[in-house]
Amino acid sequence: MAGKEELPHYKEKQAMLHGKEIRPEQLVEVGKRQLAAGWYSDAIDFFARAEYREGLEQVRRVAIEEGDVFLLRKILRAGAEEADDEQWQRLADNARRLGKLEFAREGYRLAGNRKALDEVDRMINPPPEEPVEASYDEE
After folding, report:
1. What is the DSSP code (8-state) at residue 126?
2. N or C: which end of the chain has fewer CB within 10 A?
3. Higher local confidence (pLDDT), 130 or 116
4. 35: nearest Cα among 2, 12, 78
């Protein structure tokens, strides 16, 4: 895992992403370090700027495995190939397994899996329990 000192701080990152002098190879290298450090959103920024599809696909796999809807949507906004129903389904299943119920819900919605969506909705908002009536013995 890359050390924190190896990653650019905010101003360096902005200069790299918006500068005209940086080469795509440099962006890819920084993106790979961001990916290795678990800074997935930043990795997407660098890979997208470099138009490095392989890097975007690596982060896509992480997003699906971690059940992270936000990451997958960011990848799609960066111009990656659209996610199909099967990818959304896998993401949702992983999110559900990891207890990320809101992400699971959105993944199932995008996959078109109404049954699983309803199940997660019940997990998020369980129906109210029926009150138990007290019985009193009159003696």
Report:
1. P
2. C
3. 116
4. 2
